[in-house]
Amino acid sequence: MSAPAGGRTRDVRTLSQEGTEELVTAVVTAADRAALPVCVAVYDASASLLAFLRMDGAPPLTIGIAQDKAYSSAAFGAPTHQLHELIKDDEPLRLGIVHTPRLVTFGGGYPLVCDGRVVGAVGVSGGHYTQDMAVVEEALKACGYTV
Asked: Tell me, what's a Pfam family for it (predicted)?
């Protein structure tokens, strides 16, 4: 038997395979321009992995970092560098939340927002976090996202 939906359900928009592939390609293009081998991870609106790519020469440690940046950004709906700003002056939060598995509070993870709703997230790791941010921001602009 089915129940009426009413207020019990909600519509969820999420990134498509086409959108995911376009974003991964844009990240690789931006990383090539910067001569920076990176790992890129793309997550959907529910913080589940859609795609991952490790460029030749990207350090192995960056595999998990890129995934965790995208996960953190999707789960919070905010760029990872903004998470640091939220916690840096709050001693209990700063000391406690960093023990949360998969949480990243430095740059390189960005939510993907369409019509005011988070539809996914991307994370990049391979260089200093400022380099990772520059690569992601170039890729997001190339795909029509606002940074």
From this structure: HbpS-like
